Amino acid sequence: MKIEPLWKYRTGGIVRDLSFSSINGDVAAASFDKNIYFISKEGKLLWKYQTSGQVSNVFLIPEYLSASSEDGTLYFFDRTGNLKWKCQTKGKCEDVASTYNGDYSIGGSDDSYVYFINKEGKLLWRYKTAGWVRRVCISSNAETIAAGSSDKNVYSFDKEGRVLWSYRMGSWVNTIVTTSDGKYIMLGLNDGNIYFFRNDGALLWKFGTPTPVLRLICSENAEYIVAGTENTVYFFSREGKMLWQYMIGNFDIMGLRMNEEGGIIGVGSGKNEIELVSKNKETLWKYKTDAWVTSLDVSIYGRYVAAGLENGKILFFDNKKIINDFVSEMEGKTDVAQVKEKLEQKKYSYAFRLINEIEKKMRGKKKVCFTCKKEMEEKWVACPFCGTKVE
Question: Which of 57, 62, 127, 272 is deepest in the core (most CB within 10 A)?
Fold first, then answer.
């Protein structure tokens, strides 16, 4: 199976963040060259917008795109690139998130405030913490709103800005996420701990890892939770049971995403490698890059994968095309009916598992020269290494 990007695009700086559209394969990118990029699934630059600082985060929803920049500003665009509003803070902005319809957005700033803004750009409220606010999240219906501060607290708010609850932890928050329905909130801390809360503030479970938790993601309704640390991927059930862990070596996991149902997990790291893993810990495919992977996203159904690199490149993969190319190459040589069936059902993880099984079987069928004992292709009539003719 040949793994190659469908297209590549080069920005002028480290690609800090990527975000897929849930309605098609268009992708937004945040770059340290101070630009926000919006690129079609065909690799065409649709528009870009230059800020006054390194762009730290992008959050793409069906009709809008929100972004945060180290120039201290939160930005909100429509899909065509029109700037609908911006909110100026007094510190670097590291994170922003929006509801599914764009009615509300939440942002954090190094000025220690949490900002809550409506679709028209009106600042509805702000809340002062005792430290930098670098991680925020909001559910699709805005019923769950949360922020993590360097004051070592997580704060939960209602839409009016009232603090519903807060929880004091042993370190600052590196990553925070909520489910789309807002039932659960998950946090990854610099001290290596993972916290899993119900949205009423009840701590359901906690898990300790030996190194900082850099990335944290979940599938729909938090059926599965995945954490990435400085060297390991951890895979949990909603109940907090660790189902497996996968050590990649001493490389920071900077890119970690999964599709909605949790069957495909994309992992990118300082190992200069993109790896797609199934929920059963099977490697679906790998691709070697020419620089650290600094960001990564997987589309909602798992068809598309995008990775941002330290050297400014964006790599875009189409799993449907990869599988189709394999089917076209192997049809007539081996049975690929099940692969085609899973592809039609958009079950890309299952299709890759079948492909890997087919390739494993085919490797086992290779002929071996009885004279020099070297592997030969099935079609060869003579050994190219020693000249022995094959019956």
Answer: 57
